[in-house]
Amino acid sequence: MDEKQVVKVSKFLSLVLRHNPGAVGVVLDEGGWVDVDELITACAARGRRFSRADLDHVVATNNKKRFAYSEDGRRIRASQGHSVTVDLGLPPATPPDVLFHGTAAASLPLILREGLRPMSRQDVHLSADMETAIRVGSRHGRPAVLEVDAAALVAAGHVFRVSANGMWLTDSVPPERLRPMPR
């Protein structure tokens, strides 16, 4: 499987496992899991063919660690970023004092006015390092990075969880807890 195919399968799996499982006719359970064999068969029936070995390669090599297998390896799910309702079962966790959020520079004025909201996702996604935030922000043009005062949010009662791929999740971040980072 070449890199172009890996990216193509990864993007398609993101669509199916995060946003539209019905696109291939599968149903995610309450935790976002689907049987691997069922997923492969359903995708093949809709012209998206890949083997278990291909899927293993995509899961293992995705630099964002978007997907995770269950402990027994029979089920797969997206690690975070769902727009469909799932309960990832992630326990509350204490984040570092400072987290980061990457976005498009064009979105900055609205975010500084209204804060961070999940929009079409279930959670606001934050990273522990600026490099990840820059990469995330770059997906939609010139990136902007916001520093998030996570310590103050915890003190105010905000709950954080950390996903399997290391992203920090919370329900919202008010504007007074955001600071644009110079670039």
Automatic annotation (TrEMBL):
Superkingdom of origin organism: Bacteria
Pfam families the UniProt entry points to: PTS_2-RNA
Group of enzyme by EC: transferase
Annotated Gene3D superfamilies: 3.20.170.30, RNA 2'-phosphotransferase, Tpt1/KptA family, N-terminal domain
E.C. number(s) listed in UniProt: 2.7.1.-
Keywords, alphabetical: NAD, Transferase
Entries under InterPro entries matching the protein: Ptrans_KptA/Tpt1, RNA_2'-PTrans_C, RNA_2'-PTrans_KptA, RNA_2'-PTrans_N
PANTHER family: PUTATIVE PHOSPHOTRANSFERASE (PTHR12684), TRNA 2'-PHOSPHOTRANSFERASE 1 (PTHR12684:SF2)
NCBIfam families (alphabetical): PRK00819.1-4 (NF002014)
Family: Belongs to the KptA/TPT1 family.
Functional note: Removes the 2'-phosphate from RNA via an intermediate in which the phosphate is ADP-ribosylated by NAD followed by a presumed transesterification to release the RNA and generate ADP-ribose 1''-2''-cyclic phosphate (APPR>P). May function as an ADP-ribosylase.
Entry protein name: Probable RNA 2'-phosphotransferase
Species name: Actinacidiphila acididurans
